[in-house]
Write a structure and sequence with these properties.
146 residues; Rossmann fold; 4 helices; 32% helix; 11% strand; globular
């Protein structure tokens, strides 16, 4: 059986999405695991399945939708980004185009992060006072807490 396409690519929200809701936190590993599982199941049909995990993509219209919250987001997040910038739609689409190309013919079951090094980098959205907010069970040295 031959299909008209040779690659299925999903684009998912990153772990540190702007919404950072339980919805996105819940779906991210599902998309990644689904891509890996489907890549194994569809291998004998010559279908490749990969997943693209974009970083924060800046578009004027996207950030305008958030109003003043968008400005707060830029102020707090941009300095914490390892690359010190957001990505462009062109950078994300280039990764997808590569995955669809013959040059990626051996790539399947992969999660491609296009995020400027921010995949698991903590990005602060709210200010939290530097003191303990949860009780400690057991012992914890001073250097292990603020």
């Amino acid at each position: 059986m031959h299909l008209a396409f040779s690659s299925i690519d999903s684009i998912e929200m990153p772990f540190y999405s702007f919404s950072h809701s339980i919805f996105f936190d819940f779906l991210t590993p599902i998309f990644e695991n689904m891509s890996i599982t489907l890549s194994q199941e569809w291998m004998e049909c010559d279908v490749r399945v990969n997943c693209v995990r974009p970083g924060i993509v800046f578009t004027e219209s996207g950030f305008e939708n958030y109003g003043p919250a968008g400005d707060m987001f830029l102020e707090k997040i941009l300095p914490a980004m390892p690359a010190k910038r957001f990505s462009t739609p062109e950078e994300i689409s280039s990764a997808v185009v590569w995955l669809l190309s013959e040059g990626a013919s051996y790539v399947t079951g992969s999660v491609v992060s296009v995020d400027g090094g921010s995949a698991f980098h903590f990005l602060p959205l709210i200010d939290i006072e530097n003191s303990s907010h949860l009780p400690i069970y057991g012992t914890l040295p001073r250097k292990a807490k603020l």
